[in-house]
Amino acid sequence: MPRKLFFAPLMAALLMWGGVGMGTGAESPVRPANPGGEIFTNAVFRRIILEITPGDLAELRKDPRKTVQATLREGGTNYPSVGLHLKGSTGSFRGVDERPSLTLNFDRFIPAQRFHGLSRIHLNNSVEDPTYLHEWLGGEMFRAAGVPAPRAGHALVELNGRNLGLYVLKEGFTGIFSRCISATFAATCMTRVQGTM
Q1: What is the C-alpha to C-alpha distance for residues 80 and 74, in angstroms, rounded to an integer?
Q2: How far apart are CA 31 and CA 20, in angstroms?
Q3: CB-based contact 24:42 (threshold 8 Å)
Q4: For residue range 97-128, what is the model confidence (pLDDT) as tens digits?
Q5: Domain segments of the chain: what residues?
Q6: What are the residues whose beta carbons fall under 8 Å from the beta carbon of 33, sequence distance 6 or more?
């Protein structure tokens, strides 16, 4: 079956299931606060423009896992001194001169700096997912089941004047997010234990 024909009914079913939908902006019961909510609606793809100095670009070519400083522009706002490093492993990793996946740490060099309320985001090149939907769908299903999961959206990315195209924009795992997951699982486990007494 052609890939497009397979995914169309799957998407329709998921959009109808449990009120899960793109662009609803609905709050999840396990996420009382909504930092970054406006960037995960997929109503508009964010345009993210990154600039790395020639010196830092050379450092990334020598040591692809090094964190360097970048400037990010989005929606008329400049974010200076953003920590940037290449991400991915076997299969998905791409060098800085290709179409790399990136982790952006906004508070790495400027502690209070946030991107729409978030300290960290990932830009995934989706080379192992030509639909660009796996991470979004997985997160929606987990949240519909009451399990915390990072949110995902999409962005158009440019790096040093090179148009890299469409990326999956994903909420970064941070200490706050990890504590939220731990607290949720602890509460779920206690409810189950108490239900068996």
Answers
A1: 12
A2: 15
A3: no
A4: 999 999 999 999 999 999 999 999 999 999 99
A5: 31-172
A6: none
